[in-house]
Automatic annotation (TrEMBL), chains C, D:
Chief subcellular location: membrane
Classification via CDD domains: TM_PBP2
Keyword check for Protein biosynthesis: no
Native organism: Falsiroseomonas oleicola
The protein's name in its UniProt record: ABC transporter permease
Length: 255, 297, 253, 253, 255
């Protein structure tokens, strides 16, 4: 029995324009401590899968289990980094946003502040803790979101293109931090990205989705390389090419 | 010396309720050992309803409202005739000479008030045909505006509206005044349940009102000044209005007649939920206890 | 379907509870002749319905409410949009709206009669008067809350001030306008009672005033309950219309 | 600074225009003894101020308005949040709020007096009554408009239902609550007039009713203008307080 | 005289937490038909510069001129693709969003639809025109925004990380389309990105900003390679390395 099991999961949206089957028969098992990267073309259903695993939406078919128990709703055991910045609290400073989860557990003010500042530091926003979200740039907001999820120290992390709006350098730094946190605590991670190199650098397994309608898991590539990974090594390059081929095939199926 | 007895009374703002105001401003309540709060509302009749929940101990208002309240709660009783409104309500017309000329025209009447009672009396006393007139329901304060605008050609309403309208609008005159038709009377009401268990206070209040009435009769100018002060109104205006009424504080066959008339009118309007007699509505003990000579029934 | 059944069940339970509490209050707590238990009130209501009197009053009042409400909304929406969108308009008109909205309709009766006479017009005027300010404020607040990126996008697609106003501010503000109209509807119901104080021969307001004058407690409560239930029903219909026609503007309502 | 000057200038021009139009209307259009020009009204207002009578009335009414308004808001905000946040609460309470908000305060006078007597309490009750529903609806609408990602984020940071409610729904709804309170304030002013119909010895409402009974047109207009100006001023103060204390919740107001 | 001139431009934000000088003394001249890519670390002031050029914000110092005339506000001559998706109209379908600018010019319904469908096609959303923004994935929303700006055919395009939320393939397709449109019409483009490869593939010049506070243009690299560019060519690699070094230096100034 895996830590997380997605068992024949499907999701059909019913809207004004009729029904749309976004995900069909999605099967996946994650062991505890795995770092799973999910790739796929835009609109194939990645966010939809993540929303179901987080417990925000109920699958319209199939079942999702966490440690054998069906997922019924969101919980502090699964920290989420959302696509977009709507999830930040406009009325709180960057620091208070990061400390929000700690406040929920009635942690003392001083301790909260110390932890929040540590994570502000980690995402490269030292000294910017007093700004409100409306005073931050796009990439800064995204980093606050990441810091908020990490500061809460969940067992599992669900991250939807967390580094999408960041420059290469900031991105590399955060990749390193995430990898370090993961190796130290062996959290289970589901990581959505469009960056194949990023996926190959971080993941223990990479999953590629078929495009929609009826998006589903098309192939899973295990990456058995030691951390930290040497991105110029031949083994890394081989992985990269394998994943790249899978995605390319998806875009141009007849070539 | 005992602490003064606390009482709450309520009525409208109108010189026809002068005994209340004078009893307070002139200190008659205090001299009789009463500490009275006088509340005012839009009309005396509206305040009679508060006797039902025993929110107040006494009120001052028209017959119909008293009978209506008595029908809901038999504890609401009239203890004295307070004021006879001699030249108080009139039919005032614009560009019409007499009631004959008013035929086929529109008359403003404030439904459910003394205005309506008066109009019904005019019709029956002068043997008019009600079908000759178009009745328009207008609240008293809007009468002048409606007349000015030509929505109505005449109205039947109490002072100060007729006086005001005659001053403001040309070609207006009083067609009928209530002196020729029917003397309307305002009564003092009490909650009988409360009064019986507070007989001492009740008697003292009656005494204070009688003294106030006597004071008004003997010192009309000073009384008018007191009323004007209480109402925050112009002195001369109040004095003029006070000449149109007579303050009584007694119970006479006329009083009984008016209560009977109110009962009949309510029956005519299909508003009488059960039969009552004036003897049930009027309770003469308090007045008898204060001044037996004033009870003439 | 299931959710609709839950809604109806919730409403039924809610109303049943309301009447149960009323009954208990009238029997055990208040115990005043001025506060009847629901049964004599329902009985009286039934009599009035059988005589056709209640329907007549309801119809007369509803006609006035709807006319005044629509008139008030039709005036209030463009003014609110203009106040929210154009600073000079706001500075000039705000003293007016912020002044008049605190002046009660009941105090405007005399003025209404001077202008419109004692007929239907003055009643409709009073209801429109009471509707318009709520709609103006809610609409202007809505315009203020339109995301600035939406307006900027329109501007750099070439929209002039009027187009930003009509094609962005208006549709983006629809949820606020509708909330404002829902709130204003209650004002219209409240004001009908004051409006029917002026020279009227029918309507729930007149029924209420008459009943008050003659201390007919059951009639008072019949009128009150009619107003409450009519309001409730009108609000439901309004929401249904919103869902049907304007749903895409308003995912949350 | 410059913008504040423009605001004040705009207000002054707006009010000047209002009084100019009033003057012209009274002289050329309406020409009724019941519609005075502004000058005798200002004169009468001055006399009332010199006698201290106007200040007394204003103070009496404002005390009641503020007490009732604060009470109504204090009750309305949590109820609105609960209705917006919890479906069972909504289904159960909605019939109540959606029923009572259509019943005018003026019709509740009798009930208020039965419960609270003819003293201050019944007046404050009536004002609270008229405040509470507007605040409830506006608050509930605000909760419905909270971005779902904000709520989801709190949930997966471990917030229970109550924490989502207090730490996300409440602050995110503040702009709606404040708009609701601004709208409700007008209701409070409107209702003070009805409330002071009940056995009261002071206040602007009583001044208005007395003046109506004695046809003192100038006094009526003094009372109306006092209500309007007080309302305007109260609204400005309210907005300033919002800017000062709650500005970060509400960038648009 | 350039087509666009930014002359000593600076921007200081005044907020509750005090003043923050986001941009200082920014100087740049763009010739008509140039494709200028702006790079810089997250929060350095790229969006701020773009907002001023678009006419949304007034610089607090310096001046911006377009064809010699000071920029006073936004206009249809400068099409903008925003960072984030708040600028889409929730109440319109994807197709109507794209056709919004055309509708402003009272173009007929049929013609509007035809153009909108062409651009829907171009961004890979054929047949999805009837969906509303709330029914679209993050990447799909971004593509609708791009299509909307392009459909309006402005003289100048201002694009803030337009391809940020897209997978590599969709991104490559759109880069190709953009490059083609640009070569055909020679629009002037200001393009903000974090992807150095993307910048080198598209731009005639690449600008790198110094990090904030007081972010400003640090260096400009002209890229004189013919289009379409061969990404594996030595010349391309040289450009890439040059830009990469500039950015790297910015992150680790003391190395
Ligand atoms: N409205 C504002 N008020 C205060 N500070 C602001 C405001 N907008 C931006 N800033 C600050 O200005 C700086 C530059 O922001 P800008 O959005 O231009 O960055 P950017 O280069 O676009 O970053 P990113 O790549 O993350 O989008 C940041 O430090 C930000 O905190
Ligand atoms: N609420 C909804 N109603 C209807 N359709 C939806 C809804 N949400 C998503 N979809 C559809 O489901 C499909 C998958 O969307 P999803 O957001 O999961 O894509 P994604 O893989 O995350 O894409 P991206 O990389 O662009 O974020 C899309 O075609 C989208 O149009
Ligand atoms: Mg997605
Ligand atoms: Mg940016």
């Amino acid at each position: 029995m895996g830590f997380v099991e997605l068992d024949g999961v499907g999701m059909t949206f019913r809207g004004r324009t009729g029904a749309y089957e976004a995900v069909r028969d999605f099967n996946l098992e994650l062991a505890e401590g795995e770092f799973f990267c999910l790739l796929g073309t835009s609109g194939c259903g990645k966010t939809t899968v993540m929303n179901m695993l987080a417990g925000f939406d109920r699958p319209t078919s199939g079942e999702i289990r966490l440690e054998g128990r069906p997922v019924r709703g969101p919980g502090a055991d699964r920290g989420v980094v959302f696509q977009g910045h709507d999830s930040l609290y406009d009325w709180l400073t960057a620091r208070d946003n990061i400390a929000f989860g700690l406040r929920l557990r009635s942690m003392g003010r001083g301790e909260r502040r110390a932890i929040a500042d540590r994570f502000l530091n980690m995402v490269g926003l030292t000294g910017q803790g007093a700004k409100h979200p409306s005073e931050l740039s796009g990439g800064m907001k995204q980093r606050i979101q990441i810091a908020r999820a990490l500061a809460n120290d969940p067992r599992m992390l669900l991250m939807d293109e967390p580094f999408g709006a960041l420059d290469a350098m900031t991105r590399a730094v955060l990749q390193g931090e995430l990898s370090r946190i993961w190796s130290e605590n062996r959290k289970t991670v589901l990581f959505i990205t469009h960056d194949i190199e990023e996926a190959c650098a971080l993941a223990t397994r990479v999953g590629v989705m078929k495009r929609g309608p009826g998006g589903t898991l098309k192939a899973v590539v295990p990456i058995d390389l030691p951390f930290p990974r040497e991105r110029t090594s031949d083994a890394f390059m081989a992985c990269f090419r394998q994943v790249h081929a899978l995605i390319h095939e998806e875009i141009h199926p007849h070539e | 010396q005992n602490a003064p007895i606390k009482m709450t009374i309520a009525t409208g703002v109108d010189p026809s309720f002068a005994p209340y105001y004078v009893a307070r401003e002139g200190g008659f309540f205090t001299r009789n050992g009463l500490d009275v709060t006088v509340n005012t509302g839009p009309s005396g009749s509206a305040m009679i309803a508060f006797l039902i929940g025993n929110q107040i101990n006494s009120a001052y208002g028209a017959e119909q409202a008293g009978v209506s309240a008595h029908l809901v709660d038999p504890n609401v009783v009239a203890v004295a005739e307070g004021t006879a409104l001699l030249r108080w309500i009139s039919v005032l017309g614009r560009n019409v000479e007499n009631m004959e000329a008013l035929k086929g025209k529109k008359v403003g009447v404030a439904r459910g008030t003394g205005s309506e009672t008066f109009w019904l009396s005019v019709v029956s006393k002068l043997n008019l045909n009600p079908a000759d007139y178009t009745i328009v329901n207008v609240e008293a304060p809007e009468m002048v505006a409606a007349l000015e605008r030509g929505n109505i050609d005449a109205f039947a309403v109490w002072e100060p509206w007729p006086t005001r309208a005659m001053r403001a609008i040309p070609n207006t005159k009083i067609l009928v005044s209530n002196e020729q038709i029917q003397i309307v009377r305002n009564f003092v009401y009490m909650n009988k349940g409360w009064a019986q268990s507070n007989m001492e206070a009740t008697t003292r209040m009656m005494r204070a009102l009688i003294q106030a009435q006597e004071f008004i009769a003997s010192n009309p100018t000073e009384a008018a000044a007191q009323v004007a002060r209480f109402l925050r109104q112009d002195r001369a205006f109040i004095a003029e209005l006070m000449t149109k009424v007579e303050y009584k504080m007694n119970l006479t066959p006329d009083s009984v007649g008016n209560i009977q008339l109110a009962i009949d009118q309510l029956r005519g309007m299909n508003r009488l939920s059960k039969e009552v007699t004036p003897a049930e509505v009027i309770w003469k003990e308090p007045l008898a206890a204060a001044a037996a000579g004033r009870v003439m029934i | 379907m299931n959710s609709r059944a839950a809604t109806v069940a919730g409403y039924l339970i809610g109303f049943a509870l309301l009447f149960a509490i009323w009954h208990l209050a009238s029997v055990f707590i208040v115990r005043s002749v001025l506060f009847p238990s629901p049964f004599p009130v329902f009985e009286r209501g039934w009599v009035l319905i059988a005589d056709g009197l209640l329907q007549e009053s309801v119809w007369a009042s509803m006609r006035r409410i709807i006319q005044g409400f629509l008139l008030g909304s039709a005036i209030g929406i463009p003014i609110g949009l203009a106040i929210g969108s154009f600073r000079p308009v706001r500075l000039l008109l705000e003293p007016w709206t912020e002044f008049f909205r605190f002046i009660p309709a009941v105090a405007m009766i005399t003025v209404a009669v001077i202008w419109f006479g004692i007929g239907e017009e003055s009643k409709i005027f009073l209801i429109a008067y009471t509707t318009v300010f709520v709609v103006v404020i809610a609409t202007a607040a809505g315009v203020g809350a339109v995301g600035k990126d939406k307006i900027r996008a329109a501007q750099c697609l070439g929209a002039n001030k009027f187009q930003v106003f009509a094609l962005v501010a208006l549709p983006a503000t629809v949820p606020y306008i509708l909330t404002g109209m829902r709130l204003a509807m209650a004002n219209a119901f409240v004001t009908i009672v004051a409006a029917e104080l002026v020279a009227s021969n029918d309507g729930l307001g007149k029924m209420l005033w008459d009943a008050r004058l003659f201390m007919q407690v059951e009639d008072i409560f019949v009128a009150l309950i009619s107003l409450g239930l009519l309001g409730f029903a009108t609000d439901r219909v309004f929401r249904l219309l919103i869902r049907a026609f304007a749903g895409r503007f308003n995912p949350t309502m």
